What we know:
By secondary structure, the chain is α+β, with helices and mostly antiparallel strands.
Amino acid sequence: MPGNSFGTLFRLTTFGESHGPAIGGVIDGMPAGIKVELDFVQFELDRRKPGQSSITSPRKESDRIEVLSGVWNQTTLGTPIGFVLYNEDQQSADYDELAEVYRPGHADEVWDKKFGIRDYRGGGRSSARETAARVAGGAFAKIVLAKVGISVQAYVHSVKHIEVPVRYDELDLNGVDNNLVRCPHEESAARMQACIEEARDSGDSVGGTIVCVCKGLPVGLGEPVFDKLHAVLAHAMLSINAAQGFELIDGFACTQLNGSENNQRPGGVSGGISNGNDLAFRVAFKPVSTIRKQQQAKNTSGEIVTLEAAGRHDPCVLPRAVPIVEAMAALVLADMQLLQIR
Length: 342
């Protein structure tokens, strides 16, 4: 099946299903001679793993990374880096009902129609469980970027109707992990957490937005036509489960300005190429589709049935999606950086 790899020179291929033995990946194009602290890679994975708080999925996965190749004596060899994350807490029986029922809002039906077979246990390969491999790959990309002074930081900007009232440059992004929501604006974070808890307790879910800020970009990343920097970032972000929209930080807001006003606003991209300024963008995430409330669903015979989904799911993807957004941005920028110096 195509579509399992991302990147050109710095390339990540992921494998595995939600309820299979393991998930993992292969990173190709990692430069040789770079020191790798696996504790940092594990830290990034711990930020994404389930069961980390009362407002995330209670599935318990340690997500301990095992590096199989490409690193020796904590140093990259320039060869493919293979890694694996073993699944430890599958409860596949929770999904037996879904063998004959398609969950509304999910890939179940279209996957079945496209391939003629699907792994209904947690969605198989279409599950957000796959994103753990992206976070591992993104951690290696962050290590490459740190060597040239590039950083990537994301945070939860809104949950449902609750929105951080200030721009990213008025926030201390070092405080992103100081609360369960991963929002560096404490007053907003408290309200967001209450909103998520209310949805959780009622068997429902909520969505929102994540802002990501890329600093230290040199002039020149990105190609001027089809592979514009922000176009590739959009591709990366919209490949994340539940992502529904992408915009540069003032993307839609600039439509309300005159050209004379908009030309004076700093932005990180000019003509699809980085210009040396901070680059910030926003990603919209829908409410989680699998909820405990009864819903109308279609079965494999085309009949409408009532479904009350079992399994363990996040009432809101946003807190765990922050490191995923960072990882995909890092993969894009590491690839662009290597393309720039090729």
